[in-house]
Design a protein that fits this description.
Number of helices: 3
Bound molecules: zinc ion
Radius of gyration: 15 Å
Strand order of the largest sheet: 3-2-1-4
Number of domains: 1
Order of helices and strands: HEEEHEH
Largest sheet: 4 strands, mixed
Helix content: 40-55%
Number of strands: 4
Distance between the termini: 46 Å
């Protein structure tokens, strides 16, 4: 777990170092790294957040959850 957190931290930092925006999920706080949505260590997110390099988006998991909820909502409204 700790190794993985350090790995994510360094990958986040590499994106920041390259001058790129980090895409984060506005819902669950995951960050997109190389096409994967990963849960970042809180400290990494805080450190990056101060630099204003976050681009807020919705991750695949939350998007799927939302569309499922929408579908359920429509179904509920109709019935
Ligand atoms: Zn999410």
């Amino acid at each position: 777990m700790t190794l993985e957190a350090n790995d994510i931290f360094s990958r986040i930092w590499a994106v920041y170092d390259a001058g790129n925006l980090l895409t984060t999920c506005a819902w669950c706080g995951r960050v997109q790294l190389d096409g994967e949505w990963l849960v970042p260590p809180r400290a990494a997110l805080d450190a990056i957040d101060e630099q204003n390099v976050l681009s807020h988006s919705i991750c695949d998991g939350c998007a799927a959850h939302q569309s499922t909820a929408d579908a359920a909502g429509v179904a509920t409204t109709k019935s």
